[in-house]
Design a protein that fits this description.
Layout lengths: L2 E6 L15 H16 L4 E6 L10 H7 L8 H6 L1 H12 L2 E7 L7 H10 L6 E3 L8 E3 L7 E7 L18 H11 L3 E7 L6 H32 L3
Parallel strand pairs: 1-2, 1-3, 3-6, 6-7
Antiparallel strand pairs: 4-5
Length: about 230
């Protein structure tokens, strides 16, 4: 059984095409999640709307707690890390991480960065080995195959790989760096562009992205379900 962790980071509460002023990235993530579960009814989804309910920003008590060995933490430290622990547990349980992320001012929304800071945790998602100074970090989520699907929306065109404005896009590259750092290396990216332009350019971009979402579901599902069947009992 495949488990999906579905994150939406858009500040817009609805879905484009369904709700007034709705989010395009939410439209794509909804298509992926419902498209997957309609085909694979036994698979499960955990949903977290970090756009509507932002994770806490890390602060000095969080840092002190996270970098104190678990056996030495005070009760207040466990309380400080409770939100982070829940988010880390959700991520560890996932076979597919689906992230809906609009491009805000060349990078990820602050709510998504807050989630990143909560889940990149020493001893939980990454470890550190000082005896290997050239490559001391150990990704802890590499113990089994996980996929990440980044579904983004952009105001302008040409921000994808090879595009004339690609150097200004720090959303997918930053997320890819973070995910690979903790061990999620199977990363898939689909984006809608021309949101500011609108009209046919936007409509065509949405149509193309939705076809890519459908194709990605068809591509991923057989591989994931076959891998599950091959796992030893």
């Amino acid at each position: 059984m495949t488990h999906i962790l579905h994150l939406d980071a858009s500040a817009r509460p609805g879905r484009a095409g369904t709700d007034e002023h709705g989010s395009i990235s939410r439209r794509l993530t909804h298509r992926f999640a419902t498209g997957w579960t309609s085909r694979h009814t036994h698979d499960t989804v955990t949903y977290r709307d970090i756009g509507a309910a932002p994770p806490s920003f890390i602060d000095q008590p969080w840092i002190q707690s996270a970098f104190t060995p678990a056996a030495q933490r005070s009760s207040w430290m466990a309380e400080v890390l409770a939100e982070s622990d829940q988010m880390v547990d959700e991520l560890i349980a996932a076979d597919i991480l689906v992230i809906g992320a609009p491009l805000y001012n060349f990078g990820m929304p602050a709510t998504l960065k807050a989630w990143v800071d909560q889940v990149v945790r020493l001893g939980r998602t990454v470890d550190y080995d000082p005896s290997q100074p050239e490559d001391p970090f150990i990704p802890l989520l590499a113990e089994r195959p996980r996929h990440a699907v980044i579904l983004s929306s952009r105001g302008e065109g040409g921000l994808g790989p090879g595009g004339p404005l690609a150097h200004m896009n720090h959303l997918e590259p930053s997320l890819t760096t973070v995910l690979e750092f903790i061990g999620i290396t199977r990363i898939h990216r689909i984006a809608v562009e021309h949101q500011e332009t609108g009209g046919k350019l936007l409509a065509d971009s949405i149509d193309a992205a939705e076809h890519q979402v459908d194709a990605l579901i068809a591509h991923l599902a057989p591989a994931l379900h076959t891998a599950e069947q091959e796992e030893p009992a």
